[in-house]
Amino acid sequence: MTTGPTEVTDKPAPAAAPARGGILARVTGAGWRRPAVAVLLVLACYAPFQLVPFRVFQLTMVLVYAVALLGLNLLVGHAGQISLGHGAFMAVGAYGAAIMLDRWDVPHLVTLPAAAALAFVLGLGLGLPAVRLRGLYLALVTLAIAIFLVPLLKRFESVTGGSMGLTLAKPAPPAWTGLAEDQWLYFLALAVTVTAFLLAHGLLRSRVGRALHAVRDNETAAEVMGVRLPFYKRLAFAWSAMFAGAAGCVYTWVIGFVSPDSFAVTLSITLLAGLVVGGLGSFAGPLLGGLFVMFVPGISQDINDAAPGVIFGLLIIVVMYVAPTGLAGLAGRLARSTKRILRKE
């Protein structure tokens, strides 16, 4: 049986009908993430010229906490490990920078990589418990690190300044910038924050990030697939400590003073609470958590001066009830709900 020649026509193929909700998908989908980030950066650069110095200082501290929470997010949100001693690594970076500035008169910008490297090495060593411990046992070990750090810093008074701490000079803005001191510190913190987020983004998109996710999701399956659990668990602690050390260094620049009581165990607990409220495993979580850590304790103090801790705890409960996956997850749910409603219309 033979077949005739295939008929060829010059008629153009009909254009594909636009997918239903196609424009809406582009508006509410991932395609708008980069423009949203660009708009956020423009607003961030514009803010210090419109706000009073105190508000600029508050935003600067939000950026500092965001960098610290970015490291904690790598460890808890992406590697599935737990840490109640993250404030200790922040203290390592802060005191490392402070000692370099006070004792050796090192330039401010040089202290940043040095403090981050110091915290990375200590995190690599203190990550040894993560190889054998998990869950509550690992949390207890990291909590112990945060507890003994404060008396340890007070003991070596000749180096750390003891209970009195160390007073330091803040980075002075170059004359050519025309910026005030608070604005210059803000832009330094912003530059460190953007660099940290880009570094974390690249890390999570690499082989290391895939390994961390495999460890988080199922350690047994990850080991069967060839993931070296001890290596990547320690590496997660080291990266987390590095970001905390960088945040501690910028904290020293902004405050111009460090003392052991600034890094008490409550700081570690507050950082973990801020990350959970912001959203574990999301890039927006550390930034939202930084806002929470910076502003909610002050709001709690204003609501009830006698028992701010009670108000702080109640606010956490309310946020967790409304947004079980954090504020970042709540924003995603609202976007999906809006998308469904508009589709029905």
TrEMBL record:
User: What keywords is this UniProt entry annotated with?
Assistant: Cell membrane, Membrane, Transmembrane, Transmembrane helix
Transmembrane domains' residue ranges? 35-51, 57-76, 83-101, 107-128, 135-153, 184-204, 235-256, 262-280, 310-335
Asked if the record carries the keyword Lipoprotein, the reply is: no
Cellular component GO terms, alphabetically? plasma membrane
Report how it sits in the membrane.
Multi-pass membrane protein
Which coarse location class describes where this protein primarily resides?
Answer: membrane
Domain of life per record: Bacteria
What is the name of the protein in this document?
A: Branched-chain amino acid ABC transporter permease
Q: Name one GO molecular function term.
A: branched-chain amino acid transmembrane transporter activity
Give the location in the cell: Cell membrane
Task: Report the InterPro entries cross-referenced here.
Answer: ABC_transp_permease, LivM-like
